[in-house]
Amino acid sequence: MRDHQDLLSASALTAFRLNGQFLALAERLAAPAELTATRWQVLGAVLDEPLPVAGIARAMGITRQSVQRTADLLVADGLAEYRDNPAHRRAKLVAPTAAGLAAVRAINPGHREAADRLATVLDPARWEQALHALRDLSAALDTLDGQH
Questions:
Q1: Where are the domains of the chain?
Q2: In 3D, which of 4, 5, 23 has the Cα closest to residue 15?
Q3: pLDDT value for 147
């Protein structure tokens, strides 16, 4: 069995590489819809329900400032809108517009094709195990927040 410090380093390096690979794939998939990976990510976070910028940032694991900049650009381009938030007067909710929903839908065929191609290389059962392991690792890292 590997040393714990080695496991942490190897896990982080693998996650960094995966992040880069996912971002590159997302950029390719989002391009035909004239979106960037970041814009797709923010729109994707509010497809099911409008969220405040801070909620999107928490869900995506990115900074509030980055989400705010992206949300402002999406609103300026007519892909998202700010709505009143009944729970907080100053923290507006971000919601997709019809144009934003159409842009995300335009990504779906390429997204499905990429997923199907990946499933020919990585057994779907193994892929699901990997997803569970990644979620477990993320949850474990969350428990370290605030610990020294």
A1: 38-143
A2: 23
A3: 65
40, 26 in Cβ contact below 8 A?
yes
Q: Does domain 38-143 have CATH number 1.10.10.10?
A: yes
Query: Which residues is 94 bridged to in the sheet?
Result: 51, 82
Q: What is the phi-psi region of residue 49: left when phi exceeds 0, alpha when psi lies from -120 to 50, beta otherwise?
A: beta
Distance of CA 5 to CAs 17, 39, 146, Å? 18, 35, 19
User: Tell me, what's the pLDDT at 146?
Assistant: 64
Give per-residue pLDDT as tens, 83-139. 999 888 888 999 999 999 999 999 999 999 999 999 999 999 999 999 999 999 999
pLDDT over 80 at 148, yes or no: no
Q: What are phi and psi of 48, to 5 degrees?
A: -80, -35
